[in-house]
């Protein structure tokens, strides 16, 4: 398994939906909302779009229109978060 947060096989994925996922950073300091790149052979297949310090803030950030997460993906990500 890879230690790189941007790799497909990163082990600290919290939830994933289609082209979006939320991971916990390797230093355990923050959550990262990531978008899948369109290039299959990209060196970094996942790109961070938001960095959140508190898990309770994740739903608000995921639903923020500026992140560009489609509603179905946003709903799936939020549903997959810990209660």
Describe this structure in words.
The chain is of the alpha+beta class and 83 residues long. The protein is 19% helix and 28% strand. The protein contains 2 helices and 4 strands; from the N terminus they run ββββαα. It has helices at 58-63, 71-80, and strands spanning 13-17, 20-24, 31-36, 46-52. A 4-stranded antiparallel β-sheet has the order 1-2-3-4. The longest helix has 10 residues, at 71-80. The relative contact order is 0.23. The model has no long low-confidence stretch (mean pLDDT 90).
Cα-to-Cα separation, first versus last residue: 28 Å
Report the strand count: 4
Strand content: 25-35%
Instruction: Give the assembly state of these chains.
Output: single chain
Class computed from helices, strands and strand pairing: alpha+beta
The level of helicity is 10-25%
Rg estimate, integer Å: 12 Å
Count the DSSP helices.
2
Tell me about the largest β-sheet.
4 strands, antiparallel
Q: Give the domain tally.
A: 1
Strand order of the largest sheet: 1-2-3-4
Average pLDDT, to the nearest integer? 90
Question: What does the overall shape look like?
Answer: globular
N-to-C SSE string, H for helix and E for strand = EEEEHH
């Amino acid at each position: 398994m890879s230690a790189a947060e941007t790799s497909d096989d990163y082990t600290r994925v919290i939830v994933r939906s289609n082209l979006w996922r939320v991971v916990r950073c390797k230093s355990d300091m923050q959550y990262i909302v990531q978008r899948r790149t369109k290039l299959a052979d990209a060196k970094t297949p996942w790109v961070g779009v938001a960095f959140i310090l508190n898990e309770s803030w994740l739903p608000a950030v995921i639903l923020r229109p500026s992140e560009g997460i489609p509603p179905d993906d946003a709903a799936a990500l939020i549903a997959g978060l810990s209660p």
